[in-house]
Amino acid sequence: MRAENISKRFGAVVALRGVDLHLNRGEVLGLVGDNGAGKSTLVKILCGFLRPDSGRILVENQEVHFHSVKDARAYGIETVYQDLALIPQLTVYENLFLNREVTFLGRLALLSRRRMRALARQYLEDIKVNVPDLESEVEMLSGGQRQAIAVARATRQNAKILLLDEPLAAMGAKESALIMELVRDLSARGVSMIVIDHNYAHLFALCDRLNVIQQGKVTVNTRVADTSIEELTELMVSAFRRQLQAGQEALGEISA
Ligand SMILES: Nc1ncnc2c1ncn2[C@@H]1O[C@H](COP(=O)(O)OP(=O)(O)O)[C@@H](O)[C@H]1O
Ligand SMILES: [Mg+2]
């Protein structure tokens, strides 16, 4: 998958200013950057939730035009959103089927709740997730369990490309380890992934390559095997300096 020169603004806020990014087949790409840098906006564009103002997206070298999340899903693109998009008052298995087979169910009304529960159990087993009770309301579960359900839902449709927006945020060490193992398993099965996270130790353990987003632009692109945390920090600092300098020059022009 490739994004070329993607820009997006929300009113006066420029969230993305000409982002170029690519994801190779089977690769885990880590995306880092400060709050507000534009990471989630980029993910939402790649999964069809938002339309870019300009730029293009290519999947397998073909330009694609996503008008909805469903369009992107047709290309095997699945997303775990930062805000999870689970409904707390629904049960585990109801959440697993949310917005998916629900329409299919409505049309055919063949898949019984019993069958849905059996399928749900299978999906969770497939990715080695232990949820005590499929009938529990999601509200009752820990952050890690909720995250696991969101990941299970995103992965069970034979996703080819998985976009994970801060899957480890607000998670304990044990839960993080569970999700990291899931990511590794999926990667071993050939799923390509973009993972957003703030923890460099996690990213260095999970990713093949890292991109840094600063103020709506990808400023650093480096293979994990070719870099260290110290080196990455230096790259980020010099990219930040360049941005600062460009900003100061622009200000100078305005005041001149
Ligand atoms: N729906 C929206 N409406 C207005 N501004 C938004 C919206 N979504 C994101 N933004 C703004 O765009 C910028 C990038 O946000 P976001 O992509 O969420 O950053 P990140 O995920 O890197 O923290 C921020 O300044 C944010 O406030
Ligand atoms: Mg975000």
Could you describe the 3D structure shown?
- The chain has 256 residues and is α/β, with parallel strands linked by helices.
- The protein is built from 9 helices and 10 strands.
- Residues 101-108 have low confidence and may be disordered.
- Helix 6 (143-155) runs parallel beside helix 7 (173-188).
- It is 41% helix and 23% strand.
- The protein binds adenosine-5'-diphosphate and magnesium ion (MG).
- The site of magnesium ion has 4 residues, from helix 1.
Summarize the structure.
By secondary structure, the protein is α/β, with parallel strands linked by helices. The chain has helices at 39-46, 69-73, 92-97, 101-108, 113-126, 143-155, 173-188, 200-206, 229-255; strands at residues 2-10, 13-22, 28-32, 54-59, 62-64, 77-80, 161-165, 192-196, 209-214, 217-223. The chain has a domain at 2-12 and 26-89 and 161-255: P-loop containing nucleotide triphosphate hydrolases (Rossmann fold), CATH 3.40.50.
